[in-house]
Amino acid sequence: MSPYLTAYPEGLPVGDNWVPCADSAPVIFPFDGSTVAHSPVGGVEHAQRALEAADKAAPAVAALSTGTKRAILLAVHEALAARRTELENLLVLETGKPLVDCRVEVARTLTTWASAAEEVSHTHGETVPLDLQPLGEGMIGYWTRKPAGVIVGIAGFNYPLLLASHKLAPALAAGCPIILKPAPNTPLTTLWAVHLVREVLAAFGAPAEAVQLVTGGIDVGEALVADPRVAVVSFTGSAGVGHQIARNAAPRKAVLELGSNTGFIVAADAVIHDAVDAVIRGGFYANGQACISIQRIVVVEDVAQAFEDALLSRLDEVVVGDPRSESTRVAPVINEASRIRILGWIAKATEGGARVLAGGTERDRTILPTVMADVPEDAELWCEEIFGPVVCLRTVPDVDTAIRVVNESRYGLQAAVYTKSLETAFRAVNELQVGGVVVNEIPGFRSDIMPYGGVKDSGTGREGPRFAIEEFTVTRMAMIRP
To answer: How far is residue 93's CA from residue 31's CA, in Å, rounded to a whole number?
Structure first.
């Protein structure tokens, strides 16, 4: 058992205490298949108990002062920072991500809590000139933002601590109780973080029920999402599951941060070295298991061969090995099912005419960094989200075609273009059908304070503390005749 697990109680943080669970499930270290620990598995009864507790706590959480909420968020930041190394190491074990990526995750988590603390005092409204119409002459009007109510946050397995924090911190800043459901593969770090948050809440006299966590299967998720006491569901995960959650949650709000098959355009005037460096950095990090890692590389034909040669010459820089090592950049994906799926997609694309330029196989449970070319447009490897260490090359005659090819997708989270031309850069910003456009940097760039989210099947709503607070609050209009 991991020594970090003694840091918090057994069971699940539900209500004002930790409640026991009859069932448990192993959390597996993807690198060697060993068991990190056994995690508690909740049931529908835990979900119902958490919903009841959150509903009862909502008035008290909404009544927390701005100063108290800010102090709580800063104290959580300090509590997490004090355990930074331990959190990084536990993330490596349960996610299988390289240590370098887990360090980035914890650093971004700390930024998220600190920025949420600063956004608390910016949650305000405006006056409204009601006397624009005759009926409102002599009246005073203004609107404020009020807590929406109970939040359900469901996070993906790839960045469990960070994704949970992007739901936890804004919910507390908004004055809303939140129930988290982590991914079954990666609950451990989130459990520890929730324990730390609840300790901070207790120190400030705030109800522990403001933050709860329930694990379990599909039935638990459905019980949480469909309950009428829930005001907002915030989900990070696959498009298919997100669509079902939105249907189950209706008519209440669903904030959906879903997948993508990220486009990366290399224009004829791009600095080839820089564009290749971006693929080395942005195509394989987190074992390729990131929503905005590079997947579809669309290169203008004038520089296509130079780009391909340069990329293949540098692929050895993507070191494959034990994720606990400082030098490792690619390790096994989260589980056997994902590994089999990715290798199957590679084989199917190859049968359809795609060429494997590098990789395409596995070694010691790890899919080697893979570069494909001529992938058919209808192959899963091109039109769906790979979520593995695979990138696909396509040559096009010009930037017009490149933009059209990137837009021919049901997804639209983020995309990138490498160019020296301001005209091309602004065309990409204006014409790419995505939630964010990155110029001359990896499409996986995300500042944790910016509005982050997609269009089309990549989701609805925006994350980032300021924007998530808006999602978790509702406007209330005051109309007064003195």
So the answer is: 8
What is the DSSP code string of 11-46? Answer: SEEETTEEE--SEEEEEE-TTT--EEEEEEE--HHH
Helices 66-81 and 99-119: crossing angle, nearest 10°? 160
Distance CA 378, CA 381 (A): 8
pLDDT on residue 7: 76
Q: What DSSP character marks residue 124?
A: -
**β-bridge pairing 253-257 and 459-460:** antiparallel
323 cis-preceded (ω within 30 degrees of 0): no
State pLDDT tens for residues 166-186: 999 999 999 999 999 999 999
3-state secondary structure of 453: coil
The proportion of the chain whose per-residue pLDDT surpasses 70, expressed as a percent, equals: 99
The H or E element containing residue 475 is: strand 473-480
**Domain containing residue 420:** 263-447
| Tens digit of each residue's pLDDT (9 = 90 or more) over 416-452 | 999 999 999 999 999 999 999 999 999 999 999 999 9
To the nearest whole number, what is the mean pLDDT of the chain? 97
- Is the domain of 253 the same as that of 117? yes
- The angle subtended at Cα 353 by Cα 348 and Cα 358, nearest 5°, is 80
**pLDDT value of residue 404:** 98
Lowest mean pLDDT among 7-11, 31-35, 75-79, 360-364: 7-11
- Does residue 140 form part of some domain? yes
Domain containing 155 — which CATH number?
3.40.605.10
pLDDT tens figures, 4-27: 666 789 999 999 999 999 999 999
My answer on whether 247 and 281 are in the same domain is no
Active site annotation includes 21: no
Q: How many CB atoms lie within 10 A of CB 215?
A: 25
Q: How many domains does the structure of the chain reveal?
A: 2
452 belongs to a structural domain: no
C-alpha–C-alpha distance, residues 461 and 438, integer Å: 19
pLDDT of the residue at 1: 47
Asked about 377 being catalytic, the answer comes back as no
- Catalytic entry in 291, 380, 384, 463: 291
**Which residue type does 428 have?**
A
Which is the catalytic residue, given 119, 209, 257, 308?
257
